[in-house]
Amino acid sequence: MGLCAEMLGATSQVFDDTVNYLKTRIQFGVPIGSFQAAQASRGEGVHGDRAGALSGDAVARAADAGDADFEKLVSLAKARCSDAFVLAANEAVQMFGGVGMTDEYDVAST
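Now predict its structure.
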């Protein structure tokens, strides 16, 4: 459960950093977040973030209830949270471009 929480926190941070970057980076006189491709990527990121969060919530409820399927739910949640994190990190790399590989942004260490 702890690993799921860590992955969800990292996913949320990467997503927030990327959205902030898309709002502040100007190209062709407008924020790059206004471009259609950037908006589609943000939508995918939100979906992945929510799926991971729901899985994490289900595991926490199962732990509280003493559910017999707890171990299976943990495995499922870890897979979902991992998928959400990989999606967020990959989208961040795409949105940040080359500058995302510098130490100026935390996304370089994801």
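The first strand starts at residue 26 and ends at 27.
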